[in-house]
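Task card 7
Instruction: Convert sequence to C-alpha cells.
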Amino acid sequence: MDISRASFLILLAVFICPAMATDNNDPFCKPINAFVESIKPDETHEITFLTAWGSNFKGNSEPVLSAKRCEYEGYEPASLACKALMESASVEFAGKNAMRVVSCLSPETQFASGIQLKNVSLYFSHGTDERGSDIVVELAEDKALGAMVLKVVASGY
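Output:
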C-alpha cells in the first residue's frame, strides 16, 4: 500500500467511521446518557455542538479545513458529553452526529442506511414514566455563523 492510499484510509477512519457507530456499545453513548440521566426534576440543561466543514466559523479569520466547538453552560455532566462530541463526532457529517445522539438515548430508534439529516427537531422521553428527561435534539444551519448546530436539551421530570 502506498503512502497516499494509507493516508486516505486513515482520513476515512477519522472522519467517517466514528460517525457511523450508533448503538449503546458506542463509547460515545456513555457520556451522552450520563449527561441526560444527571438532570434532576424541574431542571433543564443543554449542549450545543457547532461544526463548520470546509472553512472556519464566520468572523474567525484563521483559515482551516474544519472548525468545531461545544457549549455546555458550565454544567459539569454536560462538559463530559461535550468532550465526547469534540473527540469523536463528525465535522463533515453533522446529521450523523444527530442520529448518533438519538440512537444513544433511544436505542430502539433505527436509521436506515442512506438517511441524511440536515434540519430536524426530534422530541422524545428518556428514562421511565416516573423519572427521566424529556429530550429535544435539534439540528439546523446557522448561516450567520457559517455552522451546523446540534442542540441537545434535557428537561428533567
